[in-house]
């Protein structure tokens, strides 16, 4: 089930929100290449790579600074629920279950601007993708961690 909403209380301010809930299960072992004795009922509790719940809230605000320059500020908080990479003892490792956040400031025109972006504002820890390195998957728990809190200054130019 998924829900999404957008609200614009003012001409230059909008809010958005989305929620996704999933309660599906893999029920047939015949679709795997793993020997039946290697698998347990717990290996089929989750649909691979599909989070049980995800949600996002965000905002976008724009205001003129002068006759030629605008300020745009937007931000978000996004929860990625638990999922597994695949089915079975190797690929059945948990991933997800983290809160990602970001904030961006943009000053400029439609053709050029300077941006300041901040990501992972709350220093969240999580596993984005449980495979890690495909060459080392049999060595055990692999993770792809979230990027640490980061600051980025950029310049964009449209042609």
Q: Could you explain the architecture of this structure?
A:
- It is a single chain.
- With 159 residues, the chain is an all-beta fold.
- The chain has one domain (2-157).
- The chain has strands at residues 2-10, 13-21, 53-64, 70-80, 83-84, 94-95, 98-108, 112-119, 150-157.
- Strands 1-2-3-4-7-8-9 form a seven-stranded antiparallel beta sheet, with no helix packed on it. Strands 5-6 form a two-stranded antiparallel sheet.
- The chain is elongated and about 65 Å long.
- The two termini are 41 Å apart.
Overview in brief:
Helix content is 0%, strand content 45%. It has 159 residues and is mostly beta strands.
Strand order of the largest sheet: 1-2-3-4-7-8-9
The beta-strand count equals 9
Which shape, going by the Cα principal axes?
elongated
Query: Span from first to last CA?
Result: 41 Å
The string of secondary-structure elements, in order, is EEEEEEEEE
Overall mean confidence score, pLDDT = 86
Q: What is the overall number of helices?
A: 0
Number of domains: 1
The radius of gyration computed from the alpha-carbon positions, rounded to a whole number of angstroms, is 21 Å
The largest pleated sheet is described as: 7 strands, antiparallel
| Helix fraction by DSSP (H/I, runs of at least 4) | under 10%
